[in-house]
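dumping these here so i dont lose them again. two proteins, back to back, each one seq then C-alpha cells. dont judge the mess
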Amino acid sequence: MKVLLLKDPKEDDCGQDPYIRELGLYGLEATLIPVLSFEFLSLSSFSEKLSHPEGYGGLIFTSPRAVEAVELCLEKDNKTEVWKHSLKEKWNAKSVYVVGSATSSLVNKIGLDTEGESCGNAEKLAEYICSRESPALPLLFPCGTVKGEILPKMLKDKGIPMESIIVYQKVPHPGIQVNLHSYYSQQGIPASITFFSPSGLTHSLKHIQELSGDNIGRIKFAAIGPSTARALAAQGLPVSCMAESPTPPALAKGLRLALQAPGC
C-alpha cells in the first residue's frame, strides 16, 4: 500500500530515512516529498545572545531548524572553539528544554544536555516547564516566523520569563508542484498523505486537490501532531490519524490503524 509523507528525507545511521523503514515494517511503501525550504534570519543577533548565557535561565528548542540556526551562528562567527571550551558548559549549567527525539538528538550533537524530550508537542513541553522551578532569568526561545502561541502563552500565564527570537522562516519548496505531479503520474492516488506542519499543508494542499480530483475522498489524511491536525480540520479535511508523538513508530502505528478501517 502506497503512502505519501510530505517531509524532507533524513538518513539515519543506517543510511535510510527512519519513517520509510518503520512504515515498511507494516507493509506500507512510503515516498517522501519535501514541501518546505527554510531561510535563516537574525543570525548575528542570535549569535550575540548565545555568547551571553549569563543573561538567560536556559534554552527552549521546539524544532530541528532552531538547532541548525545555532550551528550556523557558530560557523559564521568562528565561535566553534569558544563553544566547545566555555559556552557549551555555561549553557549546560542551565535547563535546555526540547520537543521530541529528533530535535533532542540534534541538540545533543552540539554538546548540550536536554530535558523534556519525551514531550511530543509544544503544549506538553510548556506543561513540563511550568512544573519546574521558575527561573529568575528569561528562557531563550529561538523559533520560526510561524510559531504556535500555546507555549509562550502558557509560560506567560505562569509568570515564567521567556525571550523569543525569530531565527528562520518557512518558504515553499521550489519543487513541490513538479514532484507531486511526478508522484501521481507514476504511483497514482496514495492511500494516505501525512502532513508534518501547518505550513507544509498550506503550501501543498492546492496541488494535492488538483491532482486528486474526485478521488480525494479515498485518501486518508494524517497529521504528525495536534497543530497540524487542527490545520487539516480547518481546511474541512477529515483527520484519519494523528500520531501520538512525532516519531516514526507512532506514525506507523497510527497509519496502520487508519488504513485498516472500513473502506480502505
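---- next one ----
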Amino acid sequence: MASKKVLIVYAHQSSGSFNSAAKDAAVEVLTAKGCTVEVSDLYAMKFKATATAEDITGKVKNADHFCYGEETKLAWEAGKLTADITEEQSKLTEADLVIFQFPMYWFTVPAIMKGWMDRVLTLGFAFTHEKHYSQGIFKDKKAMLSFTTGSQESMFSANGINGDMNVTLWPLQNGILHYCGFQVLAPQIFWAPSHVPSEARGTMLEGWRTRMQGLLGENPLAFTPLDCFEGEKGYQLKPEVHEKHAAKEFGLTVGIHLGKALPPNNQMKAGV
C-alpha cells in the first residue's frame, strides 16, 4: 500500500459517533501502512448539498433552460466551477482509493454526501456518454462504501422486512460508483452499532482494522462489462451473452438478473 493515496469522504456531525471512530481507524491504519490519507469532513466543511447554477462562476450558456449536467461540463472545461467543487475534484483525481463513510439514511447516503456526488462527479470530469461503467474514467481507481445501519442485519435479508441489502446497494454501487468506472470493493457494513454492547462495537472496529491491512489488494465486486451490451440497440445484453447464461440458476447481477433469482451477495462479496 506504500505511496497510495486514499480519500475518505465523511458524513457525520458528531465526533463521538461510531462513524467517527470508523473514520479515525481508517486514517490510523492506512497511514501506518504508508498511505497518504485525506479526509473530506462534509459537515465540518459545510459542504453545499444542492446542485444549482450557483456552482458555476460567471455566465451560463442557457439561463432560461438551465441543464445542470451540460452547464457544469462546460464550466469544468472552462475552469469555471466553484472552488469547493474543484478542490474535491483535485482530491479525487489524486486518490487511488475513495472510502465513503456515513450512516445510512433512508436506505441511502445522507443528503450532504449525495450532494458531494451530485456536484463533484460532473459530466466530463467523472463520466462521459462514451466513458462509463467498465470503460469509465475512474477504472484505475477503487471505491467503497463503509456505513452504519439503524436496523439489524436480519432485517436487511431476502426474508427481512427491509429487503435484501444487495438490492439496496445496487443504485449506489452500480449506478454511481461503477458508472464512473470505479472498481467497487465490497462494502464495510456495521450493523446497528447503536443497538449492541460496547464490546460488540469494539469487535466491529477491530474487524475493520484487520480488513484494512489488505484493503487495496482486494478484488472488486463483479459487474457485467460494457462490451456485453449492444450500444446501437439501446444497450441491451448481447444475444450470445444471454444465451450463455440461459441455463444458469442465477442472473448476472442484482440489476441484470434476466428474470432469474438474484446471485447471492452480488453487491456484498467479491467473487460471487
